[in-house]
Write a structure and sequence with these properties.
The protein is an alpha/beta fold and 260 residues long. Helix content is 53%, strand content 7%. The protein starts with 10 loop residues before the first helix and ends in a 14-residue tail after the last helix. The protein has a domain of 180 residues: Rossmann fold (3-Layer(aba) Sandwich). The protein has a 4-stranded parallel beta sheet with strand order 3-2-1-4, sandwiched between helices. Helix 3 links the parallel strand 2 and strand 3.
């Protein structure tokens, strides 16, 4: 048993459940296998391990999609080495050549351009999903999902989210037990959508603190005032609660106008 550091949960059982979930999704959809993006980061590395355990390495394809001048060489090296160790096939696509035609026509905006990059990556994943009869494995975790820290129809647009019950803090505990290399486990989380971007820097809070707040707000259903008292935090609780509230639309299907 591998215990969660932030709640009463058996990470080993959750990991086994994730494998069974992926295997069942593949069976239900009657597809040939899975495809996922490999960033050289924690989440995609754990998601790959789960995918391989679920359906076997011969049925998993990994896409490595760096951007010249932005994606660190170490990320690419980590992604390719982990894929090699998992014995899966990979395809490499440099994103800049796809991105530039859009940027020449569009107004300059860092956030919009970042979201465009995430959507281009997902477009590539779905191309191979269609081409080879695969399902797309999303790599988002519960922390990112609840905080809305993903691009709608970008990294949030997948066929399944096997890590969607794991908080980031829990994946940091689980990953070393699965053999994920220290170079990946110790890496600061970042979508790599612009230079020097880090998830915690953009969120303005560490995952360790955010996850403790989320457990009380979402898992235990406590009101913000009680969470503030229990944790001795105020601004942080307000920030997390606001992010959960305003990103709710990102976790839902498009709303349909009701009948008159």
């Amino acid at each position: 048993m591998l215990s969660s550091p932030i709640r009463k949960a058996d990470l080993t059982k959750m990991y086994e459940a994730a494998i069974s979930f992926v295997r069942q999704e593949v069976h239900n959809a009657n597809v040939s296998g899975l495809v996922l993006g490999l960033s050289g980061g924690l989440d995609s590395s754990v998601a790959l391990e789960v995918a391989v355990k679920a359906v076997g390495s011969s049925h998993v394809l990994g896409l490595v999609m760096p951007e010249t001048g932005l994606t660190p060489d170490a990320d690419v090296a980590d992604a390719l080495e982990w894929a090699r160790r998992q014995r899966i096939a990979t395809r490499y696509f440099e994103l800049t050549s796809l991105l530039q035609p859009f940027l020449r026509m569009l107004p300059e905006d860092r956030l919009c351009q970042g979201n465009l990059k995430a959507r281009l990556r997902m477009a590539l994943l779905y191309y191979f999903s269609n081409l080879e009869n695969r399902l797309v494995v999303g790599t988002g975790d519960r922390s990112e999902i609840l905080l809305g820290y993903f691009t709608k129809y970008g990294d949030g647009g997948a066929d399944m989210l096997p890590l969607g019950r794991f908080y980031k803090t829990e994946l940091k505990v689980l990953a070393p037990e699965l053999g994920v290399p220290p170079s990946i486990c110790a890496k600061p989380s970042s979508p790599r959508l612009w230079r020097d971007q880090t998830a915690e820097g953009e969120l303005g809070i560490s995952y360790e603190v955010a996850d403790r707040i989320l457990v009380l707000l979402e898992d235990e259903g406590l009101p913000p005032a009680v969470v503030k008292e229990k944790l001795g935090l105020s601004k942080e609780v307000d920030s997390v609660a606001l992010r959960v509230a305003v990103s709710r639309h990102k976790r839902e299907m498009p709303h349909i106008c009701p009948e008159i």
